[in-house]
Amino acid sequence: MSIRPQPTQQEKVLAEDDFIVSKTDLKGIITYGNRIFIKMSGYSERELLGAPHNILRHPDMPRVVFKLLWDTLQANREISAYVKNLAKDGSFYWVWANITPSYDPSGSPIGYFSVRRKPRPEAIQVIEPIYRALLEAERRAGDGQAGMKASMALLQQTLDQKGVGYAEFIFGI
User: Fold this and answer.
1) Which one, of 75, 71, 122, 68, lies nearest residue 94 by Cα?
2) β-bridge mates for residue 82, sequence order
3) Which range (1-15, 92-106, 108-122) has the least confidence?
4) Full strand arrangement of the beta sheet holding 79-86
5) I need a surface site. Which of 20, 35, 133, 154 has the fewest CB within 10 A?
6) d(CA 12, CA 130)
7) Contact, 126 vs 81, CB < 8 A?
8) What is the pLDDT of residue 151?
9) Tens of pLDDT, residues 84-97
């Protein structure tokens, strides 16, 4: 699975009552995926289990969104985000994702649990141009830390202009 699919303009859309469920270990390696996850991704269960969850990362997604996601999860807090995923055949699908840490009986984190559903089209219309601007900031500043810093600064500026924090913004669109 080292070859990334070539993105196409073909969109898959979740049904209103579909829920994608997956679990990963602390490093983001997939340990479980429900039937809808397997179907939407286009990969077989065998291909998904043991693979890094970022196998689904669409190149239209800014890296800063995943940095924010990982920073929040590693602080043992849940996070929600709009995510554009890349299927095995190059098609894409948008999800409204809620990711939470999973704990063992002693309270130590052991992985992450994600439930994704169909996002509202109006929310995608709001988030897509923001993601494009974040991605452009990353590209202009270059790979690595400079790109991440530029994108994070733009995200913070966007939130400041709206007078909200990340969670309030995401839940408000």
Assistant:
1) 122
2) 96
3) 1-15
4) 30-33, 19-24, 109-117, 92-103, 79-86
5) 35
6) 21
7) no
8) 96
9) 999 999 999 999 99
